[in-house]
Design goal:
Belongs to the chloride channel (TC 2.A.49) family. By secondary structure, the chain is of the alpha/beta class. The protein has 27 helices and 12 strands. The chain folds into 3 domains: about 210 residues, Clc chloride channel; about 230 residues, Clc chloride channel (Orthogonal Bundle), CATH 1.10.3080.10; about 160 residues, CBS-domain (Roll), CATH 3.10.580.20.
């Protein structure tokens, strides 16, 4: 319910604030352009966007709507509003919630794999991410709200699971809730409940049991239903770019569809390489010290270049919506400016292919410029210190390329319908090519090239378009783009960012085939200092505090004694600190030389000795252990399937060492002939 409501509020706010850059509604300033003209009686069919209640800034301030001075004033105010929104967003992120930046999907993948990033799913992050998401999308930057909505939904999931002890105490259960939350996030982002569940399964989740599958489906369904009842776009659809096509596609069209797949794969590879190089530069040079300045500069460049071109001026979702659209009889867009046959006596809904008019040619070069601009600017935008999703810009790049290919094929078929490829299916006066379908296939191909999704991508796209008969073109494009992109590098953008940030993430898709044993990987190695351990009944509180102060480990194995080294359990560092602190506050007579007992019942103490500290209740009595001769292949599998952070190595009950997730990752890098120290863990 909560992500659905938040998504509805975000959609409505973005709609209003995007229009605020161009003008204001006089009858009620909280109306967007479209809502403002709904109530007006003075709108005509041709000028459906113009109504006296809606005034551009130039009309309001200098009472001019045309001419150079009005254009310059509108241009200037557009840039000012964009800068104002972006500055506010980056300041909020910087001051209140540094974790609210980026898309959030790489971090959620890492969290679901068993690594804890404290505060990443906290209440502040939720609040600031929701507010700044509205600001950055409205500022016209080349980013989307779809990725961050997954993060927002996961924050909601984390908040609700902390209210119930069944989930807050159990890490595994909490991760299942987060998987369902990720599904709900995609469900409201695209209006695709099934696509959301598959996205969670394919991209985000690490461990996805069957019961989580239907619970995620239920969560996604409720989220989509909530958004539908809010109805943010007023068209009873969950997304702005919902379309329906009525013409079938033909076998010969698979060739351009596959070409679009190749384009998507190449763009995905180019984007990942350039974006990672730029982000690495940001991390290692002085550029990273000025996040606010960087956002301001990129916003200024975006706004200055975007305003003159009508395709980049509007919000990216509206652009995609127009590119997906089929040209009906009632369309007023430039892309539909075809030359009509005056003596056409066909029904209105089935308009035959027509020669392109001047508007289409203008639109073609404007789209070409917009495509180049989007490709370049998105590389620099993704990864700045503001919430930024990647789905919408990638889809826009693909949709622009696809629409241009579609118009090309359509004109080719119209002017050369006697060619052998067109002769069978494209008679003169028939409606054979739908350029909007090419835009949709291109969008799927580019999104697949960047994220390497396949199944969930195709399902999301056909839930968007309601067209089951276009599954084959979508599958062809998605698979081609994945193959082409995989030829240049196996990592999708999210995995690449995980590696760049140095998160300890074991990719489920990687194979580990080397014949090494646990004893080769465990610490301590020969010649290193022995393992830091606690004993069950011979250490004082002071000894334990010293050990905690001198080391920064996450927890300590507990053994019977330093000599026998028989393992009893594992104590978490955080719980040890809390237990000692609480015991001192409660004044149970615990002092620095009190003995710490991890046994069930401590022995009788002499009458004058200090009160003992019993810590049996914080001891994990069944820590995960493997023997020293366990093959590393099995150990890696255990780490993956259970999302472990550490595993103890024993031989016939005696503790030998410990393997952490970071040791496993270093070992895997070493086996792949990389420098194990080059994997930095922040």
């Amino acid at each position: 319910l909560f992500p659905g409501t938040l998504a509805g509020v975000i959609d409505l706010a973005v709609d209003w604030m995007t229009d605020l850059k161009e003008g204001v509604c006089l009858s009620a300033f909280w109306y967007s352009h479209e809502q403002c003209c709904w109530t007006s009686n003075e709108t005509t069919f041709d000028d459906r966007d113009k109504c006296p209640q809606w005034q551009k800034w130039s009309e309001l301030l200098v009472s001019q709507s045309e001419g150079a001075s009005a254009y310059i004033l509108n241009y200037f105010l557009y840039i000012m509003w964009a800068l104002c929104f972006a500055f506010l967003a980056v300041s909020l992120v910087r001051v209140f919630a540094p974790y609210a930046c980026g898309s959030g999907i790489p971090e959620i993948k890492t969290i679901l794999s068993g690594f804890i990033i404290r505060g990443y799913l906290g209440k502040w992050t939720l609040l600031i991410k929701t507010v700044t998401l509205v600001l950055v999308v409205s500022s016209g930057l080349s980013l989307g709200k779809e990725g961050p909505l997954v993060h927002v939904a996961c924050c909601c999931g984390n908040f609700f699971s902390s209210l119930f002890s069944k989930y807050s105490k159990n890490e595994g259960k909490r991760r299942e809730v987060l998987s369902a939350a990720a599904a709900a996030g995609v469900s409201v982002a695209f209006g695709a409940p099934i696509g959301g569940v598959l996205f969670s399964l394919e991209e985000v989740s690490y461990y996805f049991p069957l019961k989580t599958l239907w619970r995620s489906f239920f969560a996604a369904l409720v989220a989509a239903f909530t958004l539908r009842s809010i109805n943010p776009f007023g068209n009873s659809r969950l997304v702005l770019f919902y379309v329906e096509y009525h013409t079938p596609w033909y076998m010969a069209e698979l060739f351009p569809f596959i070409l679009l797949g190749v384009f998507g794969g190449l763009w995905g590879t180019l984007f990942i390489r350039c974006n990672i190089a730029w982000c690495r530069r940001r991390k290692t040079t002085r550029l990273g010290k000025y996040p606010v300045l960087e956002v301001i500069v990129i916003t200024a460049i975006t706004a200055i270049i975007a305003y003159p071109n009508p395709y980049t001026r509007r919000s990216t979702s509206e652009l995609i919506s127009e590119l997906f659209n089929d040209c009906g009889a009632l369309e007023s867009s430039q892309l539909c400016d075809y030359i009509n046959d005056p003596n056409m006596t066909r029904p209105v809904d089935d308009i035959p292919d027509r020669p392109a008019g001047p508007g289409v040619y203008t639109a073609m070069w404007q789209l070409a410029l917009a495509l180049v601009f989007k490709i370049v600017i998105t590389i620099f935008t993704f990864g700045m210190k503001i919430p930024s999703g990647l789905f919408i810009p990638s889809m826009a790049v693909g949709a622009m390329a696809g629409r241009m290919v579609g118009i090309g094929v359509e004109q080719l078929a119209y002017h050369h319908h006697d060619w052998i490829i067109f002769r069978n299916w494209c008679r003169p006066g028939a409606d054979c090519v739908t350029p909007g379908l090419y835009a949709m296939v291109g969008a799927a191909a580019c999104l697949g090239g960047v994220t390497r999704m396949t199944v969930s991508l195709v399902v999301i796209m056909f839930e968007l378009t309601g067209g089951l008969e276009y599954i084959v073109p979508l599958m062809a494009a998605a698979v081609t783009s994945k193959w082409v992109a995989d030829a240049f590098g196996k990592e999708g953008i999210y995995e690449a960012h995980i590696h760049l940030n140095g998160y300890p993430f074991l990719d489920v898709k990687d194979e580990f085939t080397h014949r090494t044993l646990a004893t080769d990987v465990m610490r301590p190695r020969r010649g290193e200092a022995p393992l830091s351990v606690l004993t069950q009944d011979s250490m004082t509180v002071e000894d334990v505090e010293t050990l905690i102060k001198e080391t920064d480990y996450n927890g300590f194995p507990v053994v019977v004694s330093k000599d026998s080294e028989r393992l009893i359990g594992f104590a978490q560092r955080r719980e040890l600190i809390l237990a000692i602190k609480n015991a001192r506050q409660r004044q149970d007579g615990v002092v620095s030389n009190s003995i710490v007992y991890f046994t069930e019942d401590p022995p009788e103490l002499p009458p004058n000795s200090p009160h003992p500290l019993k810590l049996r209740r914080i001891l994990n009595l069944s820590p995960f252990t493997v023997t020293d001769h366990t093959p590393m292949e099995t150990v890696v599998d255990i780490f993956r399937k259970l999302g472990l952070r550490q595993c103890l190595v024993t031989r016939s009950g005696r503790l030998l060492g410990i393997i952490t997730k970071k040791d496993v990752l270093r070992h895997m890098a070493q086996m792949a002939n990389q420098d194990p120290e080059s994997i930095m863990f922040n």
